Amino acid sequence: MVRQFLPLNGLRAFEASARHLSFTRAAIELCVTQAAVSQQVKSLEKRLGVALFQRLPRGLKITAEGEVLLPTLTNSFDQMAITLDRIEAGQVRELLFLGVVGTFAVGWLLPRLPDFQQQHPFIDVRISTNNNRVDMAAEGLDFAIRFGSGSWHGTEALRLFDAPLSPLCIPKLADRLRSPADLVDATLLRSYRADEWSTWFAAADVPPATQVNAGIVFDSSVAMMEAALQGLGIALAPPSMFSRHLSSGAIRQPFPTTISLGSYWLTRLQSRPSTAAMLAFSDWITSQMSSTSQ
């Protein structure tokens, strides 16, 4: 197919202006003058025979025709940027897209990631964190590391390890606790899983409380632990993911009782072919699990 001449300057000017809804801010991004951006967009509109913007006293309003054009351009420019990033000094770089539950990312993956990068310097890792809810297909992920039972439709799952939960709090609050029953009167921080504290109380042989003084509900153990660090309450979280806080003394685990409600899993879509970068990461994380368990 013979591709017609593409007015790249005009398309680029339009895409930046549409994202910012401003010729001035687009000009700053593109390192040209505001007049140049405006003229390039006008030339593109003349070529297409349609208006792409309504010029308002304060900014721009994209037209229906502009709305049709924008997603294609944004995706195309993003893909070009990604491809260019992969080429460095003649060496093609592999990309690895990971979706990682935030607790695992902060507590386990990030401290070990330099080792992976040292072993595979031409694999660029792109990490997006989540609260254990992820759409791998829609987000274009190679892997998702998440917490649960290991059963997710259409995926292959490799179990990494359990992450038992236990109460964690600042020393000032821990000093007030003599037995697990003392927690009944404390402010308890929890995740969206409502049965966590009742399950822990049962494991600690605490009779069912008539009322639990529940605090804020979080969708992330990372945010919940930040609240605990600020003294807002007692978190029920995996000590293994917050070992740095425990080692420094910023956080204490007042009681040894733990409960296990699931494991961390490395998951991939069954329909997604494995790339060289995916195989390298899978081998690396498997070896990390083996060395940790020894």
From TrEMBL:
InterPro entries per UniProt: AmpR_PBP2, LysR-type_TF_proteobact-type, LysR_HTH_N, LysR_subst-bd, WH-like_DNA-bd_sf, WH_DNA-bd_sf
Keywords: Activator, DNA-binding, Transcription, Transcription regulation
Name of this chain's protein: LysR family transcriptional regulator
Pfam families xref list: HTH_1, LysR_substrate
CDD domains, per the entry: PBP2_LTTR_beta_lactamase (cd08484)
Native species: Rhizobium beringeri
Similarity field: Belongs to the LysR transcriptional regulatory family.
Ranges of residues in domain HTH lysR-type: 6-63
